[in-house]
Structures are given as C-alpha cells and as structure tokens.
Amino acid sequence: MRFITLALLCLVIACGDSTGKGGTDTPSAAPKKIFQFMRQEAYKSLDPVKQFDGASAELIQNVYDSLLEYDYLSRPYRMVPNLLTKMPELSADGLTYSFELRSDVRFVDDPCFPGGKGRPLVTDDVIYSLKRFAHGSLNVKSYTLWQGAVQGMNEFREQTQKGADMNKLDIAGIKKIDDHKFTITLSQQNPLALFPLAASQTAIVAREAVEKYGAEFEQHPVGTGPFKIKTLQRRGVTILEKNPTYHGTYPSEGEPSDEATGLLAARGKKLPFIDEIHLPLIEEPQPAMLKFLSGKMDWVAMDRDNFAKMGFKDEKGFHLRPEYVGKYEIYSAQMLTTEYWSFNQKDKLVGKNKALRQAIAYGLDIPTMLDKLENGRGVAIKSIVPPDIAGSERDTKADGYSHNIELAKQKLIEAGFPGGKGLPPITIEYRASTTRTRQQFEWNRAELAKAGITLLANFQTFSAYLQRIESGNFQVGISGWQADYPDAENFYALMYGPNKRPGPNEADWSNPEYDKLYEQSRFMPNGPERFALFARMNEILREEVPAIVTYTQIACGLRQNWVKNFKRNVMIDVPFKYFDMDPAAQAKGIQGAK
Amino acid sequence: MLAYAVRRVLYTIPVLLGVALLVFLLFNTVGEDPVRVALGRHATAQSIAELRAQWGLDKPVPLQFLDFLGQIVTFDYGVSFNSGEKLSKLFTQGAAVSLWLTVPPFVVGFVVNIAFGLLVAYYRGSFFDRFSTAILIMTMSISYLVYIIGFQYFLGYRLELFPVSGYEPGFEGLKYLLLPWLIILTVTAGEDVRMYRTMFLDETQADYVRTARAKGLSEPAVLVRHVLKNAMIPIVTYTMVAIPFLLMGAFLMERYFSLPGVGDLMISSINSGDFPVLKGLTMVLAIAYSAMVLLTDLIYAWVDPRVSLR
C-alpha cells in the first residue's frame, strides 16, 4: 500500500514536470543557453591517447584542444591554427616545422593545479602530450596515425615499450625553443605529417592532471577546450559547461553562401556561445526523434525510416514534407567516405578474370539502389575519392562504370561464361548482418542475376570479417573507407601495391604504373599536374577493376529553428563551440510543438 | 537437515564450474574479437599484439580460464576492456538502476496479478472469465517491442503523460521510470494471471476445499483462506527463481528508455566483445540463480522434512 501511495505521488510529480523546460530556466532567472543533444554510444576513454572511437573523440574535441583544427565554414576542408598563432612554418629542406603557441591559452581550473587555478599552456605541455602519444604502453590504438613520421619517435616508442621512463627520454625530432616555440623535424619530407596534429589523439593534456588522477585520468579530463565537464556519466547524462577562459573566436571566412545564410554574422566573436551541452545516452532512433519533435532535443540525425516519413529528395536536394516545413530545418552533407567492392586478386575466379570483374561492374545499378533503399541518401561515384575532396572525379573527370546489362552480358561472354553458363556462384563478404546489408545484398543479387551472375552472401561480425579478409579467404569484400584527413592520397593509397593486406589494399592488387603514379602524386600540392596523375590512375583502375567504387554516404538530419551557426562539417563531428541559440525562439518553438 | 544443506551446497559447485566453462568457451569462441573491434580496420600486427598482451588475451587459453576461475572465487572480475572501469563499480551502478526498473513492478505485479487471478478463478466459466482470458492471451501475444514503441509514442510523445526517455539518479529520476513500469506490468499481467488462475483452479479440486465447502464456508472465504494459502507454495517457487533475473534488468526497456542498467550494459558489451563485463555479469547471474534455487530447496526441506536428496 505504501508503495502504491509512493507511485501515485511520483505520477503526480512526473505529470507536473512532464511539460518539459526545454533549454531555459525559470522566467525570473537569466535564460541559460542549454543545448540538448545526445550520444549514441558510451565513450570508452577520455584520455586522448587511449581512445580510438567516435563517442570518446566527440567529448575530447570539446574539452581538449589539438594544435590544429579544421576550419568550420570553409570548403574544401582545410586546417587552421587552433593553439598556434599561425600555421607551422616549414624549413627550406622541407623537414622541420616551426610552431609558435598562442599566449592566451589556459587550462581550465582544476584541483590538480596550485590553488585550483588553471595555468597558461606552454611548450612543455605539447612535448609532454606528444610523448604520451608516442608512448609504447600508453598508446596502443592510434600510434599508426603518425608512425615513423617524426625523427626519433619510433625509437622513443621502443624504449618506453621496454619500460623506460618517458620523462627521462626525449623524442629526437621535437625540440623546445622557449615556452611558446618548438620545432618538429620529420623523418622525411611529408606535407601530410601535419594532419595528425588536428586529431583528437594528439590533444594537449596537463602533466599535473595526469599525475594527480593516475588511472582515473581517463574519467577526469583537464584541458584547454571550449567546454569542461560538469557531470560525467558514461551511460547516463553527461553535461558540458562553458569554459569562460576559452581562447577561440568565431571564424571570419567561409564559403560565399555563408554570408547570405547568416553563418558569418558572429565573425570574430568569442567562443563558445552555449552555456551547457546536455548529452544523454540514447541508443535507439525512436526516442531520439520523439524528443526532437517535442522540442526537447536541438539536433538529431535522421535514419532511413525517419527520413522516409519526414523528408524526400528531388533534383534540387533534400526537403522536408510540407507538414514539417517551417517547424524544423533539414540539412544534408556528403560524407568523406567511399564504399567499394574489393576483388581478391588471389582468388582463382574473380582475381584472374578481368572481364568477369568488368561484367559485375556493368551489372550493378547503384544510383537506383540508393534511390530505392537509401532514400537517395548517397551519391554514386566513379572515382575512389569522395567528391568533396580535391582530386576526386570533379577534378579528374574520371569515368567509372554505369549500369548496362547488355554490356555486362557481353563482358560475361568475354569472360568465358556466356549467359552465366558454367559460372559458379560468387560469394560476397559483409561486415555486419543488419537489415540494411541484407537489403543491399538482395538488390545487388537481383541485378546481377539479370546478367546471369549468381551472388551469395556471407554476413558476419566485424572481427570475423576482418579475419576473413586479412587471411585472403574471400572472393569479394564490401569495403569502406572514411577519410583520416581530407586529401586524395588517403584514398588512392587504398590501391597502392605496398599497402597490401593486412594494409588497406584489401584486394591485394598491384600495378607498377599505378604505384609509380601514386608515389609521384603523393606529396604534390593539389593542382592540374597532380590531377593529371590522378586521372591516369583512375583510367588504370577502370580498366583493371581491382575494386568497384559504389557510393559516398550523405548524412541527413534535422535541427530546431532556434539553433544558429549550424553547418555540418564532416571533419568535426560535434562542433558545439560554434553553435548559438535563441532562447525566446526556443520557448516559442517548444510551445508550438505541443 | 544440516546434512541435506551441506550436500545441496556441494551439488552447486559442479553446476557453477560447468557454467563457468560454458561462459568462457562461449565468449572466447563466439562473438566479436575485442582487440579488432577496438583497433578497427588495418591495425598493424604490432598494435594488435600489444593490445592483446595488455588485456591478457595473449596467454594460453587454459591459463586464461584459470584466471577466470580465480576471478569467480575472489569476486574480482577486473576492469572493462571498453572503459577501463572496475567491473564491481559498473555492476553496482547498473544494478541499482536495473533494480529500480524491475523490483517495483515485480512487487506490484505480484500482488495485483494474484488478486486478479483469484478473481478470475472465482468467476471461472463465466463470461468475465472468458473475456479476461481472451484479453490476457492478447496481451501475451503482442511483442514487448510493440508495447515499448506504442506506449512511448502515444503516452510519452502524443499525450505527454510521461517523459519519452531519460534517466536521473535519485528521487528526481522516478518520473522516467513510470512508463517502463507500466509497460512491465502490462506485459507480465497476461502470463502471470493465467498461471495463477490455473494454480488456484488446481487447488479448488482438492479434498480440503470440498471439506471447507461442506462446512458451509462461502466461496470467497474458501478461496482466500484455503485455496490462496495452499497455492502460495508453487507461486513462491515460481517467484523466487525469477528474483535473480531482476538484477539483469530488462534489455529492451533499458535501451529504449535510456536507462543505464545492467541489461543495456550487457547488450553494449556483446556488441563490442567486452569479455570481462560479459563473463562477470553472466557468472553473477548464475551464482545468484543457483543461490536462490538453493534457498528455495532449503526452505522446502525445512518446511517439509520428507524432502531429501537421493
């Protein structure tokens, strides 16, 4: 009875509170800007060098800073200084970069500092953080990002792996000049070596925090970022609060259209604008979307089902259905990803029969598949580089394969299997067993059957897929790649001979001309000369078909009308520091949602 | 009695050893490789070897099993591969949430469903009985997921009677549990009421009931004073073995309502191959289940001295 009374009491409280406050406090207090978002997965570690997952990186990007960052508004994506006064300067021999730190950067207040007051960032912090990155037992997940790039770093790693004290060792290529200046010397000329300095794994930490919190440091971040942790719950609600001493300002430049859309109205203003970011863990799309629709979430990604219900695509782009227009804003952004089929060159059937691979390439109908199965949330591509990266088909005019059953049949005759006669079934490996992968397989199976090609599928766990691919025990693998950095080299490397398995060249394909062109183009600046080399590489790929590039994903989502400065930047997953919101419009919007 | 208790406890040991072996083999041979999941594609052989060594997965399998047995004995399952947090902390935090989610509807459901079962048994054969049975079968036939999605949409979003999802520790967080409680009560009602009804009807055929009726007792008095009391033995057995599962929460409920309980922890650990969490949780559940069965048997032996092991 007592319990029932308590439950009834709770019900009354709940109903009284279920109207939802949204992001504002009571009317008498100054409205706090509270941005409501979500996390889809629990973070693994908040120590920059121990994490290698998206959920951790999203938090680290907001509480820590790396030396460089990606420009929020500019496209194509480019790096800009974050903790530095200017971009690093390269010496005449092309080996040594000089860095100068900003003098206005401070760590957030924390008991690890004397008097609990955060201190200014100095060169020693950078060196300490980079040593942690290179440490043999601290960083076992992401060292490959910078492996071998800096003089003496590999040797430092070997020593620390054997138990040497990192504080008594130096990395030969990293030299302190003074409290705000240092140099990094590379092992060889490599313009791509700066990219890891914009990654969350090289974020700068304070030695005092690492030493004070020890094993707990993973759960106790102390950074210089735009936010600090107010409440940290791995699987509950994590709350970030504004760092009042943050050094950053809103960008002054962007794309030409950014001025008209108001994205540059805040130029030069001190960041961040939002007081608090609330991040509950919501793993399923339905509750996330329902919270968004009731005005209790400010930004939500749209999965296929929700997109089908609320949006549509036409030749002009993505739109909301009429009943949602004016209530929410829809956005879309091409991801820097490539989906492709890898043909195992060691396989006696698909690896040795070029005409068969060409037949399969002609048999696939990717644009229709994207329309039917993905609601158009993908773009069919003809080059292995996603369209938004310099050196893609936009620059090379690469001409891939288009769906043509007649040509597929003709190629099948050339391959020695007229009408598919005598052709054994071809097995394709998937790295997940989801509705999506199964539907895609069924689509492709039906398409290729029209040409006389029988397809079988092997759906498996991610690690089982990796084992199968790396062991070479497969015919065709569904591969995918997401840009580590926005340069075409990162994608052309997928077919480079020396990158064979267990490297990213899963097809185990090698072509001397392609390899030579790749090496030539690797460190060249973007421009006609580099694009001409890429164009030839694309021709080789088209002729030899070690892989069929299929599509690039398009991310779609919704934001509330009161969210300002929103532009999807696929190199910054959650750019909270640039967001702003209008509390009055928010209050009105929440009322409207009811 | 003491000899029975000792023998019964000794019988539990090989059962738990068998469970440990099964759990170990299952999680080491089926499911994701945690190292590959953590490192992603194209990890170097060196980094794979380093992480395996750090997590103790490079040791021979028999040695890993011995380590696991040591963990069971000491109740120290180490740390999670995913977060580096101590399993004892993860489990305590998760169990608190899961128990909040499952115990209140379990207790309320126990009382309400027994009362309803008794009522239906009282009106056995009537239109009310048939109608109730049809409704209960219907509620049993609908998937748990449909209840969650439907209730969340209509009661949470459309009618705004409850928050759609969320969690807060402490009293403030109770508002987030009301809708999940309602769903659990609805889902369990069908099966429980029908089972209790059957148990009550079985008892009504007994000689002592005929005697009670012959004495001139009213039907409600027969049901409450005699039938209910005697039917409680199978009901308590059924209920006791369900108690350990309360610790595990309700997987779907926790996932859809963003409740950070043990059930959701289990699902995410399966997805990422977090062996220590999986092994720890499974063993804790197995031990709790065995303990509860043991306790039930001992209570039986205490109540009825004829019960013995042969």
What does this protein look like?
The complex is a heterodimer of chains A (594) and B (310). Chain A is of the alpha+beta class and 594 residues long. Chain A has 2 domains: 10-260, D-Maltodextrin-Binding Protein, domain 2; 337-553, Dipeptide-binding Protein, domain 3, CATH 3.10.105.10. Chain A contains 18 helices and 22 strands. In chain A, a hairpin with a 5-residue loop joins β4 (89-90) and β5. Chain A starts with a helix and ends with a helix. By secondary structure, chain B is mainly α. Chain B has 2 domains: 2-74, no CATH class; 88-303, MetI-like fold (Orthogonal Bundle), CATH 1.10.3720.10. Chain B has helices spanning 2-29, 34-39, 45-54, 61-74, 87-122, 127-141, 144-158, 174-204, 207-214, 219-240, 243-247, 251-256, 262-272, 275-303. Chain B is flat and about 85 Å long. Classes of the chains: A alpha+beta (594), B mainly alpha (310). Chains A and B meet through α1, α7 and α14 of A and α2, α3, α5, α7 and α8 of B.
Give descriptors for this structure.
heterodimer, A: 594 residues, alpha+beta, D-Maltodextrin-Binding Protein, domain 2, Dipeptide-binding Protein, domain 3, 30% helix, disordered N terminus, B: 310 residues, mainly alpha, MetI-like fold, 76% helix, 0% strand, flat
Question: What is shown here, in short?
Answer:
The complex is a heterodimer of chains A (594) and B (310). Chain A is an alpha+beta fold. Chain A has helices at 2-17, 54-63, 123-134, 153-161, 207-213, 256-260, 285-293, 304-310, 354-363, 366-373, 393-396, 405-414, 435-451, 462-471, 489-492, 512-521, 528-544, 583-593, and strands spanning 34-36, 68-70, 79-81, 89-90, 96-100, 174-178, 181-185, 227-231, 237-242, 276-280, 299-301, 311-314, 317-320, 328-334, 337-343, 378-380, 426-430, 455-459, 476-482, 547-560, 563-564, 580-581.
